[in-house]
Task: inverse folding
């Protein structure tokens, strides 16, 4: 069974549509600023990829109280319209998030402690699955509805899970993707990790000193190919193969020499039925932390051998920051747009080569490239890994 992507939607610090997001990322712009939505004076780190230009689509009715729900609803709206799936009742919904509605929960706790005026919000806003409920209800999607949480691999894993549902015959079309929003609760937990940079994300650079977290959503419409063709849907690319696993190693540290990442890339290649030498480009997890970038480089070398040095690699986290539960799905969308346009966006802020990260990184300026097959890598705290392989629709 062949699975394709027919729609995309993005809400990100780089833009609140697929077109604006892609233009900004390809231009190599940076989107980090001081957090303004909540007080950060008690935190060591205060810069993030906060979305400041978001406008709630009026046709969706009153906006939810929780920012995360707003972001994913807007991204889903763009993807649903792009794929012309509105009202397709058998469509499934698979969403993924690290924090769900914890922003609303933070507001509720502030109200309960007398630190916030108002009524504390409504109980449904606090539930982890509320965004998936809303997406299903607004567009009358009555297929399987799932919410998963696999840390930073969440968004990519939602796409893989959607493909599993289609392969199992449980749905012919699925709306899938990840989302998260900045909130006091989330920021407190992320700060404890001590993985943040104060100024910039520098993937694979010798002087990299951490990541910067951001917010938003990336949503895709995933379908069985013959179903998509029969209804005349535009096909962006084929999801040729995917893999999911976990390191079973450590709560926060990556497995030694990137063993889990290497294994999941091999699983994706096997599922796609292709050789390592067939891959033309890798959209890396590339967080800008010391350990991740080294182990991901080691994993790519282990899987691709000498071909590893011929594969252009990029990390758009250098521009966007780490979008938490949305990272994998937004990076999958970037991979699809690379296939469509033949443009690989840059890894910005790269100035000093690292002898341990010595592959062909696309640095500081986007490049034109003939990309037929792209692999998108995601890895999460706790050791979850997902790899997706896409093939251009015209190939």
Result:
């Amino acid at each position: 069974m062949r699975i394709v992507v027919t729609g995309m939607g993005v809400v990100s610090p780089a833009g609140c549509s697929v077109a604006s997001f892609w233009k900004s990322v390809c231009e190599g712009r940076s989107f980090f600023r001081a957090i303004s939505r909540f007080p950060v004076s008690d935190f060591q780190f205060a810069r993030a990829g906060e979305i400041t230009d978001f406008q709630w689509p009026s046709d969706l009715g009153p906006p939810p109280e929780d920012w995360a729900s707003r972001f994913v609803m807007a991204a889903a709206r763009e993807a649903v319209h792009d794929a012309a799936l509105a009202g397709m009742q058998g469509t499934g919904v698979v969403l993924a998030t690290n924090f769900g509605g914890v922003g609303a929960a933070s507001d509720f706790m502030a109200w309960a402690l007398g630190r916030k005026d108002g009524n504390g919000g409504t109980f449904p806003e606090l539930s982890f699955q509320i965004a998936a409920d809303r997406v299903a209800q607004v567009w009358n999607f009555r297929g399987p509805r799932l919410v998963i949480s696999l840390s930073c691999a969440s968004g990519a894993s939602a796409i893989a899970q959607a493909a599993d549902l289609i392969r199992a015959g449980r749905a012919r079309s699925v709306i899938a993707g990840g989302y998260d929003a900045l909130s006091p609760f989330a920021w407190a937990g992320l700060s404890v990790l001590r993985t943040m940079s104060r100024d910039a994300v520098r993937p694979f650079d010798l002087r990299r000193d951490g990541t910067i977290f951001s917010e938003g959503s990336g949503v895709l419409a995933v379908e069985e190919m013959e179903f998509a063709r029969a209804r005349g849907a535009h096909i962006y690319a084929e999801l040729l193969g995917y893999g999911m696993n976990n390191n079973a190693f450590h709560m926060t540290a990556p497995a030694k020499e990137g063993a889990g990442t290497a294994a999941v890339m091999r699983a994706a290649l096997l599922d796609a039925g292709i050789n390592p030498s067939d891959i033309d480009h890798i959209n890396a997890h590339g967080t800008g932390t010391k350990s991740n970038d080294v182990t991901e480089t080691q994993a790519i070398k282990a899987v691709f051998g000498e071909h590893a040095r011929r594969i252009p690699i990029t990390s758009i986290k250098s521009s966007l920051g780490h979008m938490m539960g949305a990272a994998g799905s937004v990076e999958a969308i970037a991979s699809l747009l690379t296939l469509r346009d033949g443009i690989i966006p840059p890894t910005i802020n790269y100035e000093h080569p690292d002898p341990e990260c010595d592959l062909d990184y696309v640095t500081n300026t986007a490049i034109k490239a003939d990309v037929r097959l792209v692999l998108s890598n995601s890895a999460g705290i706790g050791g979850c890994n997902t790899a997706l392989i896409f093939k251009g629709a015209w190939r």
The longest helix spans residues 67-83. The chain has one domain: 1-383.
